[in-house]
Amino acid sequence: ARTPVTVTVTGGAGQIAYGLLFRIAAGDMLGPDTPVRLRLLEIPAAVQALEGVAMELEDCAFPLLESVDISDDPWDGFSGANVAVLVGARPRTARMERADLLAANGPIFTDQGAAISASAADDVRVLVVGNPANTNAFIAMSNAPEVPAERFTALTRLDHNRAIAQLARRTGAAAADIARITVWGNHSATQYPDLGHATVAGRPAAGAVGDPAWVRDEFIPTVQRRGTAIIEARGASSAASAAAAAIDHIRDWTLGTAPGDWVSMAVPSDGSYGVPEGLISSFPVTCAAGEYTIVPGLEIDEFSRERIDASVAELESEREAVIGLGFA
Ligand code: NAX
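ok -> structure tokens follow
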């Protein structure tokens, strides 16, 4: 058997975690040979509910699940973590502006960044799911001096998977036949799902799509607004699909992406594609041996340039706001 991996998940009593934890424990995230030690972090008010989740995990008798520890203290919860999935966040409530949301989440991710820096394992890899995910990841990264910046990432894989699903539906292809989809920018309504390099069964997506207006008028807005459509239909935000995307993100980061394909991850920019260095923005990436690489040299046409720039401008204004508030 392989060495056990310690996975910390925050927001352990929430709805995404309820989809996520059981799949991690079943081996879907780190593979069927890797034992898992779960460390679950919550706020004090949710610890009792978290105890219930821990009981259910126990009741599954997962062969790979070595232990489940629960805590309401980040300094304890991230101790020894090899993988940290930061799901817990302050939700946006009625009449809350984006600025209020940044202010409410700043202290959480300041503390968690510092706790990860002080107590996680040397190889810790961090995925932020809680919104505003990119900027929460930026705050955590900025407060974790002991952790290499490139270990902090945010989730845009759900948007990426939604884009695959929409293209599959349009073309009648299977999801597995679609490759090289990219989501650029922020996990927000300004995100840019890009079909420019995508293929369907190995051929350029443009040909399979037919009417080019579909991309601009249907595909892009549908992917951008899919989260809202789920809330309207379900009466609650995406949970199982967000959990599945988090599984995909960590699995591909640690075990590698498929040959010839890439995935979307929000990662600290190295200046690629004109995105300011250090900004946590979504890019096309390939992964191998636990490292991701931004796909180099893609041609960006004028249509794409405008949309990438708009989302990056939003990320820059969020970064300015949290620096102004003293969180980074
Ligand atoms: P829930 O409200 O069901 O669960 C969140 C849990 O986090 C709660 O149990 C809460 O007590 C806990 N929590 C809050 N602050 C915490 C802290 N400081 N430490 C530890 N735990 C804390 O929300 P859920 O539906 O699970 O969504 C979680 C987050 O994911 C939200 O911010 C949501 O906006 C975000 N999402 C991000 C997505 C993405 O693609 N990046 C998609 C889905 C989702 O909207």
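DSSP finds eleven helices and 14 strands in the chain.
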